[in-house]
Amino acid sequence: MQQYLEAGKVVTTHGVRGEMKLELWCDGVDFLKKAGRLYASAKGGKCYNITSIRPQGQMALLQLEGVNDMDAARALRGQVFYFDRSDATLPEGRWYVADLIGCEVRDADTGKVYGVVTSVDHPGAQDIYTVKSPSGKEYMFPGVDAFLKERNPPEGYILVTPIPGLLDDDFDSEREEE
């Protein structure tokens, strides 16, 4: 599992004192406040202490130690920042999206392999997992308890109990026979 995970990307400056608008790619402002610092690369790199962060719509206004004017902030435009997973804790049973990508999706009852997780999106009330089957076809399923039985990224798998047609074409072929 990756040690440094994406926190967000600086999209522009804000004001003249070095504040920046950060497009959030993590759980939000409170999450980053707890982490307390950001890194300049996926391997760590230069470390910046967060001196202040607050929400602004879907973005965050971020102030970093040592970034004290508009020119310093402008130099960081486009910069993707990372947090160290050891700086943040998740509740038991929760995982970072980066840990779920690549997990094998298996039927909890039969062990059938449906494919691997290629993305996890957050369009609304629940996550939507995209699974690519061995044949290359993509399926989506909601990350709700009715379907999602176990997530085990350290072992590389997710167990699901799908309804017919959710992760295969069985339902469509049954309808064609009618």
Automatic annotation (TrEMBL):
Q: Under what name is this protein listed?
A: Ribosome maturation factor RimM
Residues that span the membrane, as ranges: none
Quaternary assembly: Binds ribosomal protein uS19.
Q: What is known of its domains?
A: The PRC barrel domain binds ribosomal protein uS19.
GO biological processes:
ribosomal small subunit biogenesis; rRNA processing
Where does the RimM N-terminal domain start and stop, copy by copy? Answer: 7-87
Family statement drawn from the similarity comment of this UniProt entry? Belongs to the RimM family.
GO MF annotations, alphabetized? ribosome binding
Subcellular location, record wording: Cytoplasm
Listed A to Z, the keywords are: Chaperone, Cytoplasm, Ribosome biogenesis, rRNA processing
**Keyword Chaperone set for record:** yes
Role, per record: An accessory protein needed during the final step in the assembly of 30S ribosomal subunit, possibly for assembly of the head region. Essential for efficient processing of 16S rRNA. May be needed both before and after RbfA during the maturation of 16S rRNA. It has affinity for free ribosomal 30S subunits but not for 70S ribosomes.
| This protein's GO CC annotations | cytoplasm; ribosome
Domain Ribosome maturation factor RimM PRC barrel intervals = 98-164
